[in-house]
Amino acid sequence: MTAILALFGPTGVGKTELAIAVADRLRARGERPVAVSADALQVYKGLEILTGAADAHDQERLEHRMVSIVDVDQTFSVAEYARRAHQEIDAIIADGGRPIVVGGTGLYLRAALAELDLRPPPAPGVRERLMQQLAERGPEALHADLAARAPNVAAQVDPRDRHRIVRALELDHAGQLTDEPPAPAENRLWTTDTRRPTRLIALTMDRDALKARIDVRVDAMVAAGAREQVLRAQARGASPTARKAVGYAELLAGDVDTMKVRTRQYARRQLTWLRKLPGVEHVDLTDRAPEDVARDLLDQ
User: What pTM does this model have?
Assistant: First the structure.
């Protein structure tokens, strides 16, 4: 029997609704489903509305793990996520349950389902020196340094992307940076070599339909108090990783329209990536009820 069912798709496509419908059908067959979130930001307490994490009503219908497990002022890495997600998935299976991995963050999906080959952290003091240089010289100057060392790597990094420039220079300092042409993004973020037998289902939707869903979703988030959550998180000293949540900066500025634009852009990138993935089932949710999709998925 397939140990894990993985449902992944762009923001706003209806992953949680489908996971609940699938869980209802699995329970009717005598199984015990438990959802495991594969999302970089749903781990944060206090950003549940903004990140679309399962709310109390959803949790009553289907338990979700790896949600709201980290204080908003703490940093959180994909390595820590992988360790904890593997523990949760293994515990669910050991207890006779069926994990449903649900998410849309490519790297975190891979982290949940496979083993990651992660680069080592920088040596003490290296990041501090690079950050000082960044403040004194600016990102473009450090990008030029990177281009002199590894032109193929630098070509893939925006000269204003401070985080990626510093990380690449850290790896160069540690002797871990190679200048080989980078693998396609879908190969870096995905693998069919999973830890346990997994059924991989990529959820897609007509772009106009998804755009309309996203706009409605953002309005609902704002009405539910997403901006107030962001303001509280900011007052508590939200960590740099927590502040990466799509819409965080826009809601901090009270700019809902720009939040919609950014969310639609992010969803388009997710759709493009999903449609290129090998070894997965592609399911179009356009104009389909979650219960109908769940029936088709499980009665095949």
Answer: 0.78
Q: Cα dihedral sign for 169, 270, 62, 281? A: negative
- Residues 41 and 226: their CA atoms lie apart, in Å, by 14
Rounded to whole angstroms, the Cα distance separating 78 from 103 reads: 14
Band of pLDDT at residue 45, cut at 50, 70 and 90: very high
* Residue 173 burial (10 A CB sphere; 0-12, 13-18, 19+): middle
Tokens for 213? 């869903």
Read off the pLDDT of residues 215-256 as tens digits, 9 standing for 90 and up.
999 999 999 999 999 999 999 999 989 999 999 999 999 999
Compute the distance between CA of residue 69 and CA of residue 166 in angstroms, rounded to an integer. 28
| DSSP H or E segment with residue 219 | helix 207-224
CA 77 from centroid of its chain's CA atoms: 12
* pLDDT tens, residue by residue, 98-135: 999 999 888 899 899 998 765 666 677 888 888 899 89
What single-letter amino acid sits at 162? Answer: R
Please give the C-alpha separations between residue 79 and each of 19, 84, 115, 189, in angstroms, as whole numbers: 25, 9, 10, 14
